[in-house]
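Office hours follow-up: a student asked to see two folded examples consecutively, so here they are.
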Amino acid sequence: MSASPFDPVLEKQTDQLFKDAVDLARTSGNKDVKRYLGRKADKELACRSEYNSHALQLELSILFSMAELTEPLELLFRGRLTQIMALPPERRIAIYFSLPTLRWSAEKANLTGYAKLFSKPANAPSRVESPFKGMASRHAKRLAENLDPDVYGTPENPSKGWRPDPVPMYHMFLEEMIKLNYLEAQFPFGNDIGWTREDYAQAIHTDALIIRQQLGFPLTMPNLPENPHVNLPEGFQGFPDWTPVPPHGF
């Protein structure tokens, strides 16, 4: 077994922050949030989890922001930042796949300090074309071709597919929003469905409304109190410079 890449002290701090975020979210009283977290979310988020911890972090960042759970969301952000600090410098560029979704979630929760922190741009021309032009059609196929609207539903006509078990539908929508956020932020041009940044943003917004509706919240996005503060790990000096390349397995 290879040695862990994580600094042991920071790894322990990371895992505790993720556990605190999950424990606090479970106390929210929102049944669907509790269903999505299940019994093992804190263990699945842990640095050495065999689960895809980074993907779950992003899913929960959207879910917490749509459920207006700002305190668990901030703990989740702090855990992600501490996890990055726990890695050796050459492995910290992994944060760039996360930044678009983390920024979006922070903006919706009005955590403006974190939104600004997560807004670091990649080193790329302003109109860089996607080196994988076929990606948009794969990840936005349902939206671009209006597939099965009765199955997935709309804000005006909710799907019955969310019950009795809503977890698979939440997972599908959250995963879709993560990929759309990444495409909008890093590769919005030259895609094979002719979408602009505005098209991506509208698709993300519609998915967000559907999630809020299923969580039991009004479709109007909340105007939560602004929180400009950030709690950074000791020694944090920002994110490394990076030029976008296709992420492995995306």
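And the second, which I mentioned at the end of office hours:
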Amino acid sequence: MTYTVRQAARTNDRPNKPCEDRIAATSDTFVVADGVTQNMDEYREGMTVSPAGQAAQITAESILSVLAPAADPTAAAPEAVKMAIERTGAYNETKPSAYPAAAVYVSGAIREGRLHFSYVGDSVIMLIRRGARIRLSEQQTAHLRVYGSTKGLSITKRELYDTITNNPDSPLGYGVIFGDERALSFLRAASIALEPGDRVIFSSDGIDQYLYYAPIGELATLSPDELLDRSVRYDEAPYNRYADDKAVVVVDVK
């Protein structure tokens, strides 16, 4: 079995907001991390790197540093996430803020014909196999979105962080990496045998609607840059209100 790994990224269209997606990869291990958007008053004109972007960079590099040398990346995933939690927590101690800089991630590692994958948060892992679209990850904020997030629940962002974020006892709980060890409760890790013809897409949530609704033929054949080009039509109603950062790693198995 052989495979190719390609990647692409695009910046959002929001004023003063730098790209907060990060990709870290070797030839057989890859991580896409997505920095959690901060309050808009924390962004300023000319900003090129934000705390959320830094959290994504720390997360991507931490996860990769543990998974890349691992013979069994599924078994190593808790150690990788724990390192990311510790390092983002240390970073946040140097950057006090009302809300800590945070990130989510998806990862993949190929070992002896198997794809080991793991994730925390709401990014996407999609397997395209023989004309079928198979989600290997769940978006952990999906149930929160059904309720309309903070506005629909009539709660503040502070209440969200204090009662739902990283809370495994909340029915709306979801994972975010920023220094809170409870994020480990939201780690999901598994492996699957790869087959010739498979395509696996690892993506930040900037193209999630495109991945869910676009024709499968596009997803199975287009290059990473072409995927991002085609995703533009999903950056507006009824799918989204704006273009978010987009980062994608595409693995094609032969």
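Two things to take away from it. The helical segments are 51-67, 73-94, 142-146, 149-153, 157-163, 208-213, 216-221, 224-230. Residues 73-94 form the longest helix (22 residues).
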